[in-house]
Design goal:
Citrate Synthase, domain 1, 3 domains, 17 helices, 6 strands, 6% strand, binds acetyl coenzyme *A
Length: 445
């Protein structure tokens, strides 16, 4: 191993730096010195390529498994300060949007960059409302799944299947065509989700009702029985709307990164979003809210919390719904969700798991392990408890997350497509395999 000596020529912290500054890098393998510009607290990895030991050397690369310290894009969509627990969409604090906005307006903000005028919002809402139906053939796909198919598997597959209905969608450079697919995806994802749910419980599919709001209609498609008109509970309708706002974007998380990476091949947005939804499905990402409920059930009694915490500290299990790659402070979304819980429980009756969750949080936040590791509740710690009180089975939790995250994925996708600096995503590797060797026939091995 050899070293570089790096001199930081900046005088101010990255976030206050005006204009560009530089690093001076001395390659101790050759003694050569390079000046590398620093812009926005970053250096360009490609600027390191010039650092070579000789003409045959490929040049220096960075090694960053799991992108722990790599900015893969410039983005104007979402700002997070994980140390301070700040989340803003297009500059607006999440707390203000959760209190004053609604999900479709927030979707507009994420995708268009500004809050809409009344006319703009009406047109936007109209367009989404009138794209909620899915082709009748989609029902046949749904019917093909087994009764106990996980609805997340169903939704990933049916989102991908939509690309076969809208063959124009692969014209991703055409802004009007892109916009149409954006309307369709925001509009139809709840329809697919509701169909997946109704299939799992053996109920006939309920069609969209254009008189109802985005969330009111979703509740209707899920829970409508024999009544001719479903009347959503306004508290649950609003709570769901706020939960969707809270989940709408979270900058370069695993699924947004999947959306960008797959979309960078210039595939249609349905295929890219199916990949994003697949990334979300995992228990370390959007699948965590499902795991939180399973964990709370496994603990079963407040008395057993200390034992569970011991197992977490012994690294036998994770405390699901705790910890975050970016937040090293209380996740601001978890704070808002805790407040919604009270309103929902007034309408639905209390979910007894909330007391256990609160006690688990109380004990964990007093424990040195969690304090020193900066592990706080994340958005998923309380969301599942609310969803369960609203009547959703646990398998639907990541599906709800996917509905909320749809505008964020689409905003990240479109930003990537319009960014001249982006190309097909294609990381490098450090090869650790065999040197060249010759193929041996099978009886000589
Ligand atoms: N319970 C116990 N210990 C934890 C937890 C947890 N939930 N999360 C992190 N740690 C510990 C790790 O064991 C590690 O300890 P060590 O330094 O002593 O080895 C340290 O904290 C750092 O953890 P990493 O796994 O390196 O952190 P990373 O940023 O890679 O992981 C993640 C973040 C995946 C969210 C992790 O905290 C986790 O698995 N949490 C539980 C699953 C969860 O709630 N996911 C939802 C995330 S939010 C979302 O996607 C919407």
């Amino acid at each position: 191993m050899s070293t570089l000596t790096i001199t930081d020529n900046r005088t101010e912290p990255s976030e206050h730096a005006v204009g560009k500054s530089t690093l001076t890098i001395t390659d101790n393998r050759t003694g050569k010195t390079y000046d590398v510009p620093v812009d926005n607290g970053t250096i360009r990895a490609m600027d390191l390529r010039q650092i070579k030991t000789g003409p045959d050397d490929f040049g220096l690369m960075t090694y960053d498994p799991a992108f722990m310290n790599t900015a893969a894009c410039r983005s104007a969509v979402t700002f997070i300060d994980g140390d301070k627990g700040i989340l803003r969409y297009r500059g607006y604090p999440i707390e203000q949007l959760a209190e004053k906005s609604n999900f479709l307006e927030t979707a507009y903000l994420l995708l268009r960059g500004e809050l809409p005028s009344r006319d703009q919002l009406d047109t936007w809402t109209y367009n989404i409302t009138h794209h909620r139906f899915v082709h009748e053939n989609v029902k046949k796909f749904m019917d093909g799944f087994r009764y106990d198919a996980h609805p997340m598997g169903v939704i990933i597959s049916t989102i991908a299947a939509l690309s076969t209905f809208y063959t124009e969608a692969n014209q991703i450079k055409n802004a009007a065509i892109r916009q149409r697919q954006i309307f369709r995806l925001i509009a139809k994802t709840p329809t697919l989700a509701a169909f997946a749910y109704r299939h799992s419980v053996g109920l006939p599919y309920a069609y969209p009702d254009d008189d109802l709001s985005y969330c009111g209609n979703f509740l209707s498609m899920l829970f409508k029985a024999t009544e001719s008109k479903y009347v959503p509970n306004p508290v649950l309708e609003r709570a769901l709307d706020v939960l969707f706002i809270l989940h709408a974007d979270h900058e370069q998380n695993c699924s947004a990164n999947a959306m960008r990476a797959v979309g960078s091949s210039e595939v249609d947005p349905y295929s890219a979003m199916a990949a994003a939804a697949a990334a979300l499905y995992g228990p370390l990402h959007g699948g965590a809210n499902e795991q939180v409920l399973r964990m709370l059930r496994e603990i079963g009694d407040k008395k057993r919390i200390p034992d569970y915490i011991k197992r977490v500290k012994a690294k036998e299990v994770l405390l699901m719904g705790f910890g975050h790659r970016v937040y090293k402070n209380y996740d601001p979304r978890a704070k808002i969700i805790k407040q919604i819980a009270d309103q929902v429980f007034e309408a639905t009756g209390k979910n007894p798991l909330i007391d256990m969750a609160l006690e688990l949080e109380r004990i964990a936040l007093q424990d040195d392990y969690f304090v020193s590791h900066k592990l706080y509740p994340n958005v998923d710690f309380y969301s599942g408890i609310i969803y369960e009180a609203m009547g959703f089975p646990v398998t639907m939790f990541p599906v709800l997350f996917a509905i909320g995250r749809t505008p964020g994925w689409l905003a990240q996708w479109e930003e990537m497509l319009l960014d001249n600096e982006q190309k097909i995503a294609r990381p490098r590797q450090v090869y650790t395999g065999s040197d060249k060797r010759d193929y041996a026939p099978i009886d000589k091995r």
